[in-house]
Amino acid sequence: METQAFGTLNYIVLLLYLVAIMLVGVYFARRQKSADDYFKAGGRIPGWAAGISVFATTLSSITFMSIPAKAYTSDWTFLIGQYIAIAILPFVFYFYIPFFRKLNLTSAYEYLEARFDIKMRLFASISFMLFHIGRIAIITYLTALALIPFVDMNPLTIVFLIGVLCIIYTFMGGIEGVIWTDVIQGIMLSAAAIMIFVMICFNVDGGVGEIFSMSAEADKYFPAEQFAWSWTDSTIPVLVIGFFFASLQQFTASQDVVQRYIVTDSIEETKKALLTNAKLVAVVPVFFFAVGSALYAYYSQNPQLLPENFNTGGILPFFVISQMPAGVAGLIIAAIFAASQSSISSSLNSISACYTSDIYNRLGKNTSKEKALSMARIVTVVAGVLGVVASTYLIMSNESELWDAFNSLIGLMGGPMTGLFMLGIFVKRANANSALAGVVMSIISVLAVRAMTDLNFFFYGVIGTLMVVLVGYLTAPLFASNKSEEELHTLTMQREA
């Protein structure tokens, strides 16, 4: 299929967006006096901004494009996951945020050393860093891959615009620059989804009523068969369980989200951040699914507009480039760039926070504030370059089927981390050696299940998490505790014991 002419006006709009994002990084660069500023923003971030940042961080460009494609070709069942993410927030409010705020952490994994030992801290931190370097590469690659058929840009140019510019503004502005660019990007993502839906409604005969009527007739919301239990397919019961543990991992054991809990000046502002995120998650993703239904109605009425043998995974950018007015199309493509950059910049800053806090400061000697800040910026650049190089390799080698494989590894790497936090906070008798036994068994179990069964990948995180907790609990009496009663009183929820 021929690429669409992107047009001068669209290029101007995209360029203006990229310049604006760069200027935000330049503005906040002057406030970065220490590593504490670079990772915590001196507590200057209001709760509502941190909340939009969490929302933008967890919504990548792949989600931005794949949700409408999913609703177009299939149904709305994956919307369940968004509301599971909201449902766990009271749990996070009550049990997790007090620990992260009280201990004044830079890296979430500092808690694991305080509760267990340095091995658990390094395991979780290194796992997080490796996972997110891969995430940067794959998000950049898949974004470029999705846009290549529709815009007349070289794929390496797309990688450069997304990756290199993201490195620059993250390098300069630290977490403060990242969060305020996330605010801009989160607003752009939300406005783009609403704008696309409204514009399609005006182009469908019968308008919004016809859109939802056609989807209902095609049984494209929550089909009855999706409520059946399955060990291999992503039916609704599987999604509920899988998204519960995936959301738990994201909100309790992932540095890029947990870091938002410590950039505000009070626990009330931190809770406000998650409430803001919950409101956005409750509303905005519905528009992404509605866009998919609207595209289904539009192209059902106008099938001649779709090229023969069209890959429907790119239905959203195809509509934007081919049907939306010049300038508006550039704004939507800028929103896709924004979705990618908001995820990548958060990954870069959190990788830097983990390395600086968990390795450089923890294992190094005589690390001054100035040296720590310099190291933080160096790591930001190195992690970004690694991600861009890996993404370039993926483009040159034309790799495929990466996203499903990458998602399946979340259980392998995210499950043990989530389990460690659960074990530490809720199981008072657990100790460093029982936690290590739990992690080892967790990794072995997930690898065995992945290699020997057809179990749906949503179960990997469940197995990885629960295996750490179960084995950590059962083996605890075999080892002597390395923490005093006073330390356990501070580091666990079972304070009455």
TrEMBL record:
Coiled coil: none annotated. Gene3D superfamilies: Sodium/glucose cotransporter (1.20.1730.10). The keyword Disulfide bond does not apply. One of its GO terms (molecular function) is symporter activity. GO terms for cellular component: plasma membrane. Pfam families: SSF (PF00474). It is found in: Cell membrane. The keyword Ion transport applies. It is a multi-pass membrane protein. The chain crosses the membrane at residues 6-28, 48-67, 79-101, 122-150, 156-175, 187-208, 228-246, 280-299, 319-339, 375-396, 408-427, 434-452, 458-480. Keywords: Cell membrane, Ion transport, Membrane, Sodium, Sodium transport, Transmembrane, Transmembrane helix, Transport. Its main location: membrane. Signal peptide: none annotated. InterPro entries: Na/Glc_symporter_sf, Na/solute_symporter, Sodium:Solute_Symporter_SSF. It comes from the Bacteria. GO terms for biological process: sodium ion transport. Belongs to the sodium:solute symporter (SSF) (TC 2.A.21) family. This is Acetylneuraminate ABC transporter. It comes from Photobacterium aphoticum.
